[in-house]
């Protein structure tokens, strides 16, 4: 079986890292393609190093741009590579522009596409990710649902049973693989002078928060108020750094919060495990909070990962309120949620690899 796996943005390196571990020794010839959507060392290469992910066979180096420009560059580059590599199938992850471009380029060449993390919906069509994932799911050949809810959503959308597989969530695999490593190897708590359960960890990068000055001001204001009671660590996505700079509030925030560069995965896991509370608009970090049983405020109006709200682990805290009320919520002590296991057994990678082999392994090569 010859595959082309396509990645491009930070969460996709984490997901592909988990699947690559399961692929080792399977006999699959996987050609890893990096679109270059993320390119700073600490947004890209650090993950390949820490997750033992082989360097990509190809890097398209598309870089940043508007949605159309970025996606168009990827489409052109990926079409050429798929024609040259002639894989039996293409494997894509999540909901970024890299996911969308790889899916479209492949299906138009008649190459089947398998989608890891299919069936998630926020039902908010102003979100670029919602467009990317609904378009991708609608044309993919194989849909790996991370949860029963995602599987049922695909059924409701009329996807035939033979396309859907309940795999569990590869991010849970990644979390299990990394927990001990993070405890043993990361020195980030010492480096930042942080005590176990003595700080709040925040991440912000979602367009709806960074590109709306009012929301971003409320959010940063709330974190600054919370920081009067508890240190707040904010590894800053480059998009958010640029937005704070544009608004002229970066320096003030840097005086009150522990603003740090994006960290590698091992340090991130260590921070997550030790945080008293996590506040985030990230899809991945919302779930990692639950994997380490840390209460989490989701800085959005809705989420794809509703089971964590229902079980009482996470709660929505959209930054459209006043900063004082938000800060109080961020600091509130909360009981643990219900014990649930929606993301499988940590063997999603293995299920994905076996399904790919069954489905495409015996195809005669075109
Ligand atoms: C992208 C994904 C989002 C995902 C996120 C993970 C899309 C539409 N969005 O959002 O779903 O949650 O990645 O982090 O695909 N930049 C740098 N260096 C980098 C990368 C980005 O400076 O290595 C800056 C650039 O100014 C760029 C901006 O960040 O314009 C946004 O990057 P982009 O990849 O377009 O979107 P993200 O917000 O990262
Ligand atoms: N992450 C990291 N360092 C950081 C911020 C996030 O390693 O400074 C990891 C995080 O633990 C998770 C993944 O990146 O595994 C999530 O990526 P991101 O929040 O950028 O994207 P999303 O999941 O929202 O698409």
Automatic annotation (TrEMBL):
* Highest taxon, organism lineage: Bacteria
**Listed SUPFAM superfamilies:** UDP-Glycosyltransferase/glycogen phosphorylase
Q: Spell out the Pfam families in the cross-references.
A: Epimerase_2 (PF02350)
Give the keywords, sorted: Isomerase, Plasmid
Q: Which InterPro entries match?
A: UDP_GlcNAc_Epimerase_2_dom (IPR003331), WecB-like (IPR029767)
- Gene Ontology molecular function terms on file: isomerase activity
Q: Does the keyword Isomerase apply?
A: yes
Domain UDP-N-acetylglucosamine 2-epimerase, by residue range, is 27-356
Family, according to the entry, reads as follows: Belongs to the UDP-N-acetylglucosamine 2-epimerase family.
NCBIfam families, from UniProt? wecB
Protein's name according to its UniProt entry: UDP-N-acetylglucosamine 2-epimerase (Non-hydrolyzing)
| Native source organism of the sequence | Azospirillum humicireducens
Q: Give the source lineage, highest ranks first.
A: Bacteria, Pseudomonadati, Pseudomonadota, Alphaproteobacteria, Rhodospirillales
């Amino acid at each position: 079986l010859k595959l082309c796996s396509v990645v491009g943005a930070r969460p996709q390196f984490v997901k592909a890292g988990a699947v690559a571990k399961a692929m080792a020794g399977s006999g699959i010839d996987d050609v890893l393609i990096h679109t270059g959507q993320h390119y700073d060392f600490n947004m890209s290469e650090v993950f390949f190093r820490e997750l033992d992910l082989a360097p990509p066979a190809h890097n398209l180096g598309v870089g940043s741009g508007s949605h159309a420009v970025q996606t168009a560059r990827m489409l052109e580059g990926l079409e050429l590579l798929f024609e040259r590599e002639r894989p039996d199938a293409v494997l894509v992850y999540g909901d970024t522009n890299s996911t969308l471009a790889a899916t479209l380029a492949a299906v138009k060449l008649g190459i089947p596409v398998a989608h890891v993390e299919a069936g998630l919906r926020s039902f908010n069509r102003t979100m670029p990710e919602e467009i990317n994932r609904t378009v991708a799911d609608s044309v993919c050949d194989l849909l790996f649902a991370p949860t029963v809810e995602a599987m049922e959503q695909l059924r409701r959308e009329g996807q035939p049973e033979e396309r859907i597989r309940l795999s569990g969530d590869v991010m849970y695999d990644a979390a299990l693989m990394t927990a001990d490593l993070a405890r043993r190897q990361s020195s980030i708590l010492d480096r930042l002078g942080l005590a176990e359960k003595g700080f709040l960890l925040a991440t912000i990068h979602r367009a709806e928060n960074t590109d709306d000055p009012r929301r971003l001001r409320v959010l940063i204001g709330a974190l600054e108020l919370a920081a009067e009671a508890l240190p707040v660590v904010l590894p800053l996505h480059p998009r958010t750094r640029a937005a704070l700079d544009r608004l002229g509030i970066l320096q003030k925030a840097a005086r009150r919060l522990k603003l740090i560069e994006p960290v590698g995965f091992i340090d991130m896991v260590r921070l997550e495990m030790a945080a008293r509370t996590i506040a985030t608009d990230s899809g991945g970090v919302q779930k990692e909070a639950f994997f380490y049983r840390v209460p989490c405020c989701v800085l959005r109006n809705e989420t794809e990962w509703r089971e964590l709200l229902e079980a009482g682990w996470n709660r929505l805290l959209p930054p459209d309120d006043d900063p004082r009320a938000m800060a109080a919520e961020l600091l509130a002590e909360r009981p643990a949620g219900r014990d649930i296991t929606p993301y499988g057994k940590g063997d999603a990678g293995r299920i994905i690899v076996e399904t790919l082999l069954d489905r495409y392994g015996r195809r005669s090569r075109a």
